[in-house]
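Fold it.
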Amino acid sequence: MELDGLPATADDLAALALVNYGHFTTVRLEHGGVRGLGLHLDRLSRDCAALFGVHLDVDRVRGLARHLAARVDPPAMLRITVFDPDLTVVRPAEQARLRVLVSVRPADPPASSPLRLHAVCHRRDLPEVKHVGLFGAVRQRRMAQRAGFDDALFVDPDGQVSEGPTWNIGFVVAGEVWWPAADCLPGVTARLLGGVLAGIGMPVRRVPIRLGDLPVGCGAFVTSAGVGVRPVAAIDDQSLAVEPALFERLRAGYEAIQPEPLLIP
């Protein structure tokens, strides 16, 4: 774990624990690169403008990520967090002096078993930003798992499906993929998967989705940098179709996307 290229101390991390204001992205490092690296950096820049109102030097961020990634064994998950340790709860409006924290952990092997989801009414604060305020999302995941499910699925107060705690969801309906129109994080993996879907000739739509309106026989899958593409077996007591051949095509197409170089050969 490094802050601006140097080992992070407990004092450096105090603001993340006590103030918890910032944003991040998580990428999977494989073969010296990252799928959609440019999209991840673009999102960091966009979120930085939204939270701090300042420009983010993405070339510097790339260099800091490369500095730590060069010393880890892939596959690994790198998290890049942008925050200001000097901001306080009392004075959060001070001019930001941004710091970049890069942390790494081993990457779990991709899981392919279908998920069972528990639908809950929940909306993340500022859902279009990948911010560090994870309390609500983690709590909903914890409650779903303690109830015997694999994860939670968020439904907004209007009854529309939006997203999961750390992933996007797509539905397979009559040969099309439907992405929820409700407010949610625009995921990089979902965006990359759009190219895969276009390549296999599968139409894509963004539509309002209510669980009670889903037709019998539809399917669903979740996407993120950590899980790739993973099918959904059921939402609460509603079973969904799991088409192994289709999901394998989506997974294989995603894994075939060439990583953008992060490490220097």
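The CA atoms of residues 87 and 94 lie 7 Å apart.
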